Amino acid sequence: xxxxxxxxxxxxxxxxxxxxxxxxxxxxxxxxxxxxxxxxxxxxxxxxxxxxxxxxxxxxxxxxxxxxxxxxxxxxxxxxxxxxxxxxxxxxxxxxxxxxxxxxxxxxxxxxxxxxxxxxxxxxxxxxxxxxxxxxxxxxxxxxxxxxxxxxxxxxxxxxxxxxxxxxxxxxxxxxxxxxxxxxxxxxxxxxxxxxxxxxxxxxxxxxxxxxxxxxxxxxxxxxxxxxxxxxxxxxxxxxxxxxxxxxxxxxxxxxxxxxxxxxxxxxx
Length: 269
Fold this sequence. Notes:
Elements: H1 6-19, H2 27-34, H3 38-54, E1 59-63, E2 69-73, H4 78-92, E3 98-99, E4 103-104, H5 107-110, H6 113-127, E5 134-138, H7 143-153, E6 157-160, E7 171-177, E8 184-190, E9 199-207, H8 211-222, E10 226-236, E11 248-257, E12 262-267
Parallel strand pairs: 5-6, 5-9, 9-10, 10-11
Antiparallel strand pairs: 1-2, 3-4, 7-8, 11-12
Helix pairs in contact: 1-3, 6-7
């Protein structure tokens, strides 16, 4: 094996760790790759941890014991989160985003991987204390955001469907009332998607009255799981009373004026 210089090893280790947030790597795994002693790799991890923390990018956790190892945990500083969300609010406040009916166009933002990776890591920072087992969302526009949140946690993503799919086997379905349009719709979840007793974090792109989020909470309860938190990228200021008692919104949409093209959207700090 070609001898690897320390700087090369540290760069490669950083890439491997940050590519798989939450995944627990054994030092033996890295020892086989780089042909380095575990004590040497431990010193490398100290260097990586210090650099990552210095720039507010997260941390590297060490788990002791026979089944232990190291893992990268995304965790943004408050300053970094505030700067990012302020910039996103400014982008979403562009006048050309107002579309007929007083709606806000945001699909381009939701499907930009670099932005959604950062939003997912912000959700991971805000909800880490809840220690969920699964991330849940409803098809379709919330999927990129929920996927990057699941990646940041290192957890599986569960997608609730509007109606059932034969290819997913037996499912549990419920009817729910959309909070804004007051229409009755159906959502379903494969029985094998969630383990009974597991903790679920609901993530979605937009909340007005909270009917969709309420439906996901009820559906999780139907299969014996518990929703421990609800996060949305954008929530509307009105109605103030949502169908979900507790939720975290990163941005609050106060008003969209179709005539003046003025959008009042602000970060929630």
